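[recover] target loaded
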C-alpha cells in the first residue's frame, strides 16, 4: 500500500518538476495533534506517531522522528520503502543534510505551504541556497492522491464562563494590546489554536484531544478578528464574541487580511507557528516582529480560578483512576483482559465523571516489553494479553470542564523481577526528589532536571526525552514555555524561568527495549515559598491525586525523606478521594496508600 502511494506521489512530483517533497505532521496551525484531514504523513507512510517528517525523492524516502517513537516507527515502516531516520542519533543526517545530498543543483523543493511553518521553510531555503534550490510551496500533492480524504473538521465551538476562565476575554485582549504597544506592534497575528482559545475564552472540538476550533485571529489597536469556519460558530457563541468586541470573518480570509497590511506598519507573529503560505502573503514593506507573543507566558501562569478548578479536575481524575487500578489488579487473574480493553475501561470510568469532555491524549496502556515504547498505542486484535505478573504502564489523561489532566502509573500485576523493582524504585525516587524541590526564583527546568534524572543516571541508565512539560488549562496537554529537561532543545521552547502558577509534569522513566518500561508521573503546580535575604524561594504543590503502586517499591533503597514524602502524599490522596468513593473502594484505597 505504501509503495503504491509513494509511486503516485512521485508521479505528481515529476509532473510538477519537483525533486524532493516534504510531508510533515502538521495542520495549518502547527498543532501538536492534527485532525484526520491533515494526517497526510500517516496516510503516505503508515507511521502513526504524533511527530515525524517525511521527505520523498525520485529514488528515496526517509522519515525523521524523535526518541519517543524509534521502536514504533521501526515496526510500522518495515517493508514500506521509507527509511527511518532516528533524529539526533550519531551518524543520522539532518533533513537539511539529506536534502543537500539528494537535490540537484538548481533543484525544486516542494511542500504544501499551509502545513510547513515559515521558520522551517526559510531556514531550509538558506541552508540550500548554495545549490540554488527554489521552494515550490503551492502543491498539496498528497491530497491529490488521497481519494477518500476526510473533510476538514468544523465542530461547534463554545465559550468558557467567568467561573471557568477566571478572567474575561476583554481583559485579556487589553493586556495583549498593552503588550503590543510596548513592542511597537500595530497588529498581532495569532495562528496557534491554543493562543486563540486562551485569549477569547473559546473552545472547540476540531482537534483530537485538544478542545480547540480551527481558526486564525488578528488583533489590532482597534479591532479583533476571528477567522473561522462559520458552521463551527453557533449563534450564542457569535453573540458572546461580539460582546467581547470580536468580529467573525471567513476562515480563509486571513490570507487576504495579511496581504492587505499597510506598508510601514508592524505585525507581531511567530514564524515558527505561522504557516509559510500565510507568512508569504505579508507585504515586504511590513515590519515583522518575529517572536512568540506575550500570550505564551500569560497563559502558562494560571490564575487562582483556574488553579482551583484544576484541583477539582484532579479529584475527578483520581477517583476514576482508583476504580481502574482496583479493577485491573483484582481481576487480571479472573477475567480476560488486554492492553486495549484495559485502556478502554479507564476511558469509560473517566466518562462517568462530572464534566468529562474527552481524553487529553491517546491512552498509553502498555504491558511489559511494550512499555519500553514511550508512546506505544494498543490496537484491537494486536494488543498484548495481560497476565498476573509483570508491569502495566498506563499514561493517560482527561479533558474536563474544569481542566486538563495527565497522569502515569506503572502497576504490578503480580510477581515482578527484582531488577525491575530496582528500576521502579529509582524512577519513584527521581519523581519524588523533583517534587520536593525548593529553589530560588530565576531557576529554570534545566536547573532542576538532575533531581529526577539523578537516581536513574546512578544506575548508568537514561530516558530519551524530557522529564516534564507544561500543561494547559482546558487545552493542550503539552504547553510551552515551562518544562524539565537536562539540555536545551530549542524547538521544544520549554526552558523558561519557572513562575508561580505554572503547571509542569514530573515524569522520569526507565525503558529497556524488549523487556519493560516504567514511568511515574504527577503534575506539579509552582507556588511561592518563603522570601528572605537570599531572595524568593519557590516550591511545588502536587496536583495529581492517585495512588502510586507500592507493590514494586523497595523501601530500603529510599531515603527517609523520600519515604516520608510518599507517605504524606498518600495520606493526602486518601483524604481527598475517600469522600467520593463507596465503602469497598475506600478500603481498597486505604490499602493502596498504606505507609511504608
Amino acid at each position: 500500500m505504501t509503495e503504491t502511494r509513494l509511486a503516485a506521489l512521485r508521479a505528481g512530483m515529476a509532473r510538477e518538476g519537483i525533486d524532493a517533497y516534504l510531508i510533515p505532521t502538521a495542520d495549518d496551525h502547527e498543532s501538536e495533534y492534527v485532525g484526520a484531514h491533515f494526517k497526510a504523513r500517516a496516510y503516505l507512510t503508515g507511521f502513526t506517531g504524533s511527530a515525524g517528517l517525511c521527505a520523498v525523492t525520485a529514488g528515496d524516502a526517509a522519515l525523521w522522528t524523535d526518541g519517543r517513537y524509534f521502536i514504533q516507527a521501526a515496526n510500522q515502516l518495515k517493508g514500506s520503502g521509507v527509511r527511518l531516520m532516528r533524529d539526533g542519533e550519531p551518524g543520522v543526517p539532518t533533513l537539511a543534510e539529506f536534502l543537500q545530498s539528494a537535490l540537484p543543483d538548481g533543484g525544486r523543493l516542494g511542500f504544501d505551504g499551509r502545513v510547513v511553518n515559515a521558520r522551517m521553510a526559510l531556514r531550509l531555503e538558506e541552508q540550500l541556497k548554495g545549490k540554488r534550490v527554489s521552494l515550490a510551496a503551492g502543491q498539496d500533492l498528497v491530497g491529490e492522491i488521497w481519494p477518500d480524504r476526510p473533510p476538514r473538521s468544523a465542530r461547534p465551538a463554545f465559550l468558557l464562563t467567568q467561573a471557568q476562565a477566571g478572567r474575561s476575554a476583554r481583559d485579556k485582549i487589553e493586556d495583549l494590546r498593552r503588550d503590543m504597544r510596548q513592542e511597537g506592534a500595530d497588529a498581532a497575528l495569532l495562528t496557534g489554536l491554543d493562543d486563540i482559545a486562551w485569549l477569547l475564552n473559546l473552545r472547540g472540538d476540531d482537534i483530537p484531544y485538544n478542545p480547540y476550533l480551527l481558526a486564525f485571529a488578528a488583533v489590532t489597536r482597534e479591532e479583533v478578528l476571528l477567522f473561522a469556519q462559520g458552521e463551527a460558530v453557533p449563534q450564542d457563541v457569535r453573540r458572546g464574541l461580539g460582546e467581547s468586541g470580536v468580529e467573525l470573518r471567513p476562515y480563509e480570509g486571513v490570507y487576504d487580511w495579511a496581504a492587505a497590511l499597510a506598508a510601514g506598519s508592524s505585525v507581531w507573529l511567530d514564524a515558527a507557528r505561522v504557516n509559510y503560505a500565510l507568512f508569504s502573503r505579508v507585504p515586504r514593506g511590513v515590519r515583522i516582529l518575529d517572536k512568540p507573543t506575550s500570550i505564551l507566558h500569560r497563559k502558562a501562569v494560571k490564575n487562582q480560578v483556574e488553579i482551583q478548578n484544576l484541583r477539582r479536575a484532579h479529584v475527578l481524575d483520581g477517583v476514576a483512576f482508583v476504580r481502574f487500578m482496583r479493577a485491573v489488579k483484582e481481576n487480571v487473574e479472573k477475567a480476560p483482559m488486554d492492553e486495549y480493553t484495559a485502556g478502554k475501561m479507564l476511558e469509560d470510568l473517566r466518562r462517568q465523571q462530572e464534566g468529562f469532555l474527552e481524553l487529553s491524549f491517546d491512552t498509553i496502556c502498555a504491558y511489559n516489553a511494550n512499555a519500553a515504547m514511550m508512546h506505544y498505542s494498543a490496537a484491537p486484535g494486536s494488543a498484548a494479553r495481560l497476565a498476573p505478573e509483570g508491569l502495566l504502564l498506563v499514561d493517560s489523561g482527561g479533558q474536563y470542564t474544569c481542566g486538563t489532566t495527565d497522569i502515569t502509573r506503572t502497576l504490578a500485576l503480580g510477581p515482578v523481577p527484582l531488577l525491575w523493582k530496582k528500576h521502579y524504585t529509582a524512577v519513584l525516587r527521581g519523581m519524588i526528589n523533583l517534587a520536593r524541590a525548593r529553589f530560588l526564583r530565576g531557576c529554570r527546568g534545566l536547573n532542576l532536571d538532575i533531581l529526577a534524572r539523578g537516581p536513574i543516571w546512578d544506575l548508568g541508565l537514561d530516558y530519551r526525552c524530557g522529564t516534564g512539560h507544561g500543561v494547559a488549562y482546558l487545552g493542550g496537554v503539552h504547553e510551552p514555555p515551562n518544562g524539565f529537561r537536562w539540555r536545551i532543545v530549542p524547538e521544544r521552547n520549554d526552558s523558561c524561568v519557572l513562575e508561580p502558577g505554572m503547571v509542569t509534569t514530573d515524569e522520569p522513566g526507565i525503558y529497556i527495549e524488549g523487556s519493560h518500561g516504567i514511568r511515574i508521573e504527577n503534575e506539579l503546580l509552582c507556588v511561592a515559598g518563603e522570601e528572605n535575604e537570599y531572595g524568593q524561594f519557590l516550591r511545588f504543590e502536587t496536583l495529581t491525586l492517585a495512588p502510586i503502586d507500592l507493590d514494586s517499591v523497595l523501601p530500603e533503597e529510599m531515603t527517609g525523606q523520600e519515604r516520608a514524602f510518599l507517605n504524606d502524599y498518600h495520606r493526602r490522596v486518601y483524604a481527598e478521594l475517600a469522600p467520593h468513593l463507596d465503602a469497598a473502594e475506600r478500603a481498597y484505597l486505604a490499602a493502596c496508600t498504606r505507609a511504608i
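[recover] notes: The mean pLDDT is 97.
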